[in-house]
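Entries read chain and fold; for instance:
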Amino acid sequence: MAAKRIAQSAVNWGAIAEKVGESQRPMFNSFKSKSDGYLRKVLANPEAPPAIDWALYKQKIAIPGLVEQFQKQYEALKVPYPANKVSHEIDAQKSEVEGEIHDFVARSNNRIGSYQEQLARLQSTLPYSQMTMEDYAEAFPDKAYNVDAPTFWPHNEEVAKAEN
């Protein structure tokens, strides 16, 4: 099975370059130049090997049947193209990662929704400069000063538990 000729790079270098950080840019540029060099070397060669003029060799070589034997062996030679044994593993990893990405996006959208709700609630409250202590206690009951259960400096949870 012969491999098809690759006429151009199948890599979208622009999309990859957008994702490469500035600290990794020199290594990326080196990798890209090596890849381009390999591609140029491949494209410099013809797609098919040059045809052998068997008639010329039959005229020049005096041993009977030698050229026919070489021609028969040459035409019977098939260089095996390596079988693709890892594509299915890559596809499995891709589907697994896509599932993780989908879950991450769903969780992120949930967080964004909750943050937007918090933002809407904060935007609907009175500005701090116009709030009274009662307004603050109503808007932020968990952070407001509780007259019935005062705390002492440093007003953190560990000290409040120790006081009780």
About this structure: The chain has four domains: 10-45, 52-76, 96-125, 137-164. Residues 46 and 134 are 85 Å apart (CA to CA).
